[in-house]
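Reader question, answered in our methods column.
A reader sent in the components of a multi-part assembly and asked whether the whole thing could be modeled at once rather than chain by chain. We filled in our standard form and ran it. Here is what they sent:
COMPLEX SIZE: two components
ENTRIES:
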Amino acid sequence: MSSAKTRKISRSILVAGGAAILVGAIAAAVNPLHASNRSDSSVSGHVPAQGRQAQSVPTRAGNTDDYETTDQWFTPGSGQVLPQFSQYANPAGKVEILNANGPLPTEGHPFFTPLGSNGRACVTCHQPSDSMSISAATARARWEATQGKDPLFAAVDGSNCPSLPQDDPKSHSLLLDHGLFRIFLPWPPKRPDGTRIEPEFTLEVVEDPTGCNTDPKYGLKSDNPMVSVYRRPKVVGNMKYIEPHYAQYFNLKTGEPLAKDPETGNRVSMNLMADARNLTLKSQAFEAAVTHLQRNGGLTEDELSKIVAFERQIYVAQGEHSVAGPLVVPGGPNGLGALAMLNGQYGLGNIVSNPVFGFFDMWRAEPNTTSPRDEAAEMRASIARGADVFFFRPFWISDTTGLNNIGLGNPLKRSCATCHNASMTGHDVAPGWIDVGTQNLPTVQRLSHLPLFKLTCRDDVEPHPYLGRVIYTHDPGRALITGRCIEIGAINLQQMRGLAGRAPYFSNGLARDLRELVDFYDRRFNIGYTEQEKQDLVNFLSVL
Amino acid sequence: MKNHRMISIRGSLGVIASVLLALFAALPAHASDKSAKTIAPGKRLSFVSCPIVRDTEMVPCWLAEYEGELYYLGIQLDLQSEFFPPQLKHEALVEGVVSDKPRICGGIVLEPVKVSSLPEINLSCNTILPAEGYKIENARRGTGPDPDTLSARNQARARQVEQYKPPYTQRTYTVYFDFDSTYMPSRSTRVVTEVMRYATAIDAKHIQITGYRGSALLTNGKKMVEKASLPEIRVKNIESALVDLGVKPSIISTKWSDKPEKPDGIDDFETRRVVIVVTP
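And here is the structure of the entire assembly that came back:
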């Protein structure tokens, strides 16, 4: 991956149909979950309905013969070898991808092979160059490179709504401008066994800029009622920190037992997805194949096991900073770089002796004031200060469901690391769905590009602790899975590794860059960061 | 039913509570409100009011005002603490005993004290006081990350799994709830876990889960009654949790009453409870 040259990919991607025409839907007559050698217990109850919609969405036929690939883009089905260790440039420097099991020839590997009808593979939206996620900038570059023909822009969820004209970039504005994919979920929600959950609230569409929630074929009043929200892809990597459950039995957020892997009976972290709807990598991969890849019939056990094994062997972290220089150096911080992710230990990192992202003391030295200025040393000192701000700087955390209402008090005076508490990754071990205010009004300003829902909770249920019983939200989050009023707008905290390569941030792409992310928190919690603190925090976040 | 006290919840929780209470007692009072009227130590108070948080050094402290007097409830710590702070934007039901300890954070110390954050929103509950010279010192934890002592203590607790030896006896466990709440914080789920451990270790023949509908007699004479639906929800949540933890459903019996318990203004928090009896 060291060469900058581009090359043609001659390999065709197997997609349904011939040239650039739309392939008709197979739709309701198809059982999207039929597959051999697969255990049904890995399929969540919401997936069959998703499968029906996915199969009803036309796919764009064609092949990738004309698509250019570059060092920065891993084309599905290209057969490229994923090295054991690779670095990819991003706006802050370089991100490292460590493939712990050694070089991987991706020929035929299910993570890298189009498995469905739209030409996508898992790698389409989990690009090594983008910290195993995908940035909005990459999506834009891909649109330019392929004139919008890349399977990345599949109508099913790579456009604002499948019913829109797919050749028009405006129909893909949420992906191109905000890095968002459509997540369509059955409404009312379903239990893992597929039975209907009676939600504690009604859901009305107030604004529908994409048209998908009111669409007669894909919307809430369709034959297969579906709510559409728009979210960023999470990082596929560092799973040894994401998968384990920290608490022995109970979920702090709900006071209920942590969910179990239906196949093994073992408890799970519930931290894999933004809304925790899939409990294991296996069930997540299954749903992703049915929805994102438009696979008709799910995945085989062999495909699932290979995908899960790959996801468990990938480690992601920034390895180089454009000003500070290499981040993995003798005597340097112990928590930076992909190798540190491989060697680190899962646990609670909100502890003085075990800081979330390790120690930065060696960089805390005063920068050299002699001429010429040592910019690298100054940047390293800034990064160390940012680590201190993240770990120690207290502020009032208020009105945050999943934190303030579970016995800690509202407000709670703590630091970033209170919620971002998992060793090495900075997600929340609890598990971590909280309403930090990125989705619900008025903590987030109305976002005109996203759908706006009005949720009205029944009088006989516990209200949302800070917003009451009538809530306007762009994404009900966990409540779309449980139907609970108290969980409206709650989204799982995601890991903080490889941030520099995967803007924008938050599940709805609210922050275009790290500075906007810091500014959001500063406004949201009225922190009063100084300009120096903000810049230090940005620099710190850019090296994770 | 209020005499049916918890008899088996002991060990670490009690120790922690004692340590905390001792710590609170040791906290210096850096100011006192000389103008406030004298409240007799030992007097029980039950009232609903907006909680107040004071931005004291080290950690915030929590207060509540009642009839013109400021009462100290506790300090911000963490989920291992016996005291869970209330919430702004919500009124709190405060049930406590006036102590003779020096004021803390400017408030008369209520000890012991139970504080329930009431579910409905009240936006007028929004007072954050400045420190005004008050300080909290020697708290187990400040506003930053956990000190290592806390981590070590948690690990020690995790190792404190009781070993049960015959002859096995009937044990009674009680889970208390905040007023009008079904949420079980970690101190409650620890009780449920203990029930599971005991029941499975002794191969219990029967578990009876009984839910009661709480009420509270306030100092001003008013009476508060919990929602009628809560006892059933609490019982079913605990039953479901026990089954999920591995207890055989066939040995569990449940019942609940929507008739409110009779409050008397003394430890009324004990009326909002679920009692679990494990029979060998």
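What stands out: Residues 186-201 of chain B form the longest helix (16 residues). The two ends of chain B are 23 Å apart (CA to CA).
Send us your own complexes using the same form.
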